[in-house]
């Protein structure tokens, strides 16, 4: 995969792109990440890229010319235009399913906005998608671009130590990940759950699924209401609610259809 990042501050990416998994993925040739300085495409004397908005208002906007010029230069160097994503707080909130979808594309480009935003014509004519990492405002699109890049690259085949390493992570199937433990078995008086020390992988798998359901219920009940729960999941969830003396009304999801399942 190739990822092109169009930004006013390419130096912000130097640390993240040359550390840990992202660095190893590039060295292995599994991903190519190219930074583009948008100021280099400005025709202004001092490489200015911002301008006051028509109609007045507070702040400045990124002008269209440098972005269009950078995009045209990028497309001319490739066999086909990459899939362009504009990082913006007004975009669709990024989900794990978006990362899984984008990981299937051979080339993507990330446009980092700045100031009060960018000229709408850039979004209308160039962007394939507008994404946000949350309902808050940052100084620019650089940090969201780093988040998207990190989440995306780790899904590429061969990037993680084992291809199945990302299979059990949070949000993979709509639930949060179960708690995990390592040595020592007892630390400061707190022990590891006994079931994890018994070597029964079938029971461990059931325990982990139940803990995943429990953690999602406690921390993100909104996710649980939308999660893909099969019959076994609903049985485990019923057990959790019974143990906690709670009802399905607290979760806003449908109960088991057949009480005999219990």
Task: Describe what this molecule looks like in 3D.
The structure is a single chain. By secondary structure, the protein is of the alpha/beta class. The chain is 34% helix and 16% strand. Strand 5, helix 4 and strand 6 form a beta-alpha-beta unit.
Task: Offer a concise description of the structure.
This protein has 262 residues and is of the alpha/beta class.
Key words describing this protein structure:
262 residues; alpha/beta; five-stranded parallel beta sheet; two-stranded antiparallel sheet; 9 helices; 9 strands; 16% strand; disordered C terminus
List the helices and strands and how they pair.
Layout: E1 2-7, H1 14-17, H2 20-27, E2 32-37, E3 50-51, E4 61-62, H3 64-77, E5 83-93, H4 96-102, E6 107-112, H5 120-125, E7 129-132, H6 142-153, E8 186-187, E9 190-191, H7 201-219, H8 221-226, H9 231-244
Parallel strand pairs: 1-2, 1-6, 5-6, 5-7
Antiparallel strand pairs: 3-4, 8-9
């Amino acid at each position: 995969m190739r990822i092109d990042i169009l930004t006013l501050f390419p130096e912000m990416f130097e640390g993240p792109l040359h550390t840990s998994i992202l660095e190893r993925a590039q060295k292995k040739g599994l991903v190519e990440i190219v930074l583009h300085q948008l100021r280099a495409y400005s025709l202004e004397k001092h490489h200015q890229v911002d301008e006051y908005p028509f109609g007045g208002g507070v702040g400045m906007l990124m002008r269209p010319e440098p972005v269009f010029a950078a995009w045209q230069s990028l497309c001319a160097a490739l066999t086909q235009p990459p899939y362009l994503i504009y990082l913006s707080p007004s975009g669709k909130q990024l989900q794990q399913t978006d990362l899984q979808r984008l990981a299937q594309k051979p080339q993507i480009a990330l446009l980092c906005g700045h100031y009060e935003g960018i000229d709408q014509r850039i979004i209308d004519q160039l962007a394939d998608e507008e994404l946000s990492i949350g309902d808050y405002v940052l100084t620019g699109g650089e940090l969201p671009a780093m988040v998207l890049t990190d989440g995306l690259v780790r899904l590429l085949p061969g990037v993680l130590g084992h291809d199945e390493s990302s299979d059990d992570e949070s949000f993979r199937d709509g639930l949060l990940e179960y708690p995990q433990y390592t040595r020592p078995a007892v630390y400061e008086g707190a022990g590891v759950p006994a079931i994890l020390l018994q070597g029964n992988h079938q029971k461990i798998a059931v325990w982990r699924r139940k803990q995943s359901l429990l953690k999602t219920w406690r921390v993100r009940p909104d996710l649980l209401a939308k999660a893909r729960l099969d019959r076994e999941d609903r049985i485990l969830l019923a057990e959790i609610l019974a143990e906690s003396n709670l009802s399905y009304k607290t979760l806003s999801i449908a109960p088991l259809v057949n009480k005999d399942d219990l």
